[in-house]
Amino acid sequence: MDLFGDLRRMNKRQLYYQVLNFAMIVSSALMIWKGLIVVTGSESPIVVVLSGSMEPAFHRGDLLFLTNFHEDPIRAGEIVVFKVEGRDIPIVHRVIKVHEKDSGDIKFLTKGDNNEVDDRGLYKEGQNWLEKKDVVGRARGFLPYVGMVTIVMNDYPKFKVREIKTSVVTILTLIILHMYLYASLGSFVTSAVTCSNLAGYNEAFGPKKGGRFHRFCIHLLKNYCKTTLV
């Protein structure tokens, strides 16, 4: 199929309309992400648990929803996501000790529920306590195993691509794109096309229906799956 030939034969108004629709889809995904950042106060309002250090509270692949309102004091027993200098991936652990100075400054110590020792060995050299500036957010809710695709991408380097590594923006964009294609083409794109099983795209796409631009979008999505997940 000559996809670029199909595009050239499209009516300019149709092409403009379809490109505009696609741009609105991507913009909507970005707006949702930015909106979540504003509403939650966290730079990463959604994160995935990558290890078993918090079992049985959370398991690998659980999707956590975070908030990070600085006026709320941190208390022992809370589950926080924090960054450590020299580590790319934030850590999800529980606060076990809180030390509050007379000045009002708060420092705290964390530990994984499934770990035998506290996290001082994970902090940067010479650091014994975390501060509020280290916190990415505090866990407010979760969905079990929804983030398993991120586990696959981190455990198996051949599934990684720099542009989408642990990118929730990309996941949201693909979900919204799937919803758009499903609404436009009916049964053409089945519910099998989700972020949790993109590697099976060959089985997920049905007979070729719809307009030329829709077929072009599907072709791009297939190639995207090939280059990022295989």
TrEMBL record:
Q: How does it sit in the membrane?
A: Single-pass type II membrane protein
Keywords attached to this entry: Endoplasmic reticulum, Hydrolase, Membrane, Protease, Signal-anchor, Transmembrane, Transmembrane helix
Cell compartment(s), UniProt:
Endoplasmic reticulum membrane
User: What EC number(s) are associated with this protein in UniProt?
Assistant: 3.4.21.89
* Keyword match Transport: no
Question: Where's it mainly located?
Answer: endoplasmic reticulum
A Gene Ontology biological process annotation? Answer: signal peptide processing
The reaction(s) annotated as catalysed by this protein in its Swiss-Prot or TrEMBL entry are:
Cleavage of hydrophobic, N-terminal signal or leader sequences from secreted and periplasmic proteins
Give the top-rank taxon of the lineage listed in the UniProt record for this protein. Eukaryota
Q: Where is the Peptidase S24/S26A/S26B/S26C domain?
A: 37-124
Tell me which family the UniProt entry assigns to this protein. Answer: Belongs to the peptidase S26B family.
Describe its function. Catalytic component of the signal peptidase complex (SPC) which catalyzes the cleavage of N-terminal signal sequences from nascent proteins as they are translocated into the lumen of the endoplasmic reticulum. Specifically cleaves N-terminal signal peptides that contain a hydrophobic alpha-helix (h-region) shorter than 18-20 amino acids.
The name under which this protein is listed is: Signal peptidase complex catalytic subunit SEC11
Q: Which organism is it from?
A: Leptobrachium leishanense
Quote the gene name from the UniProt entry.
Answer: SEC11C
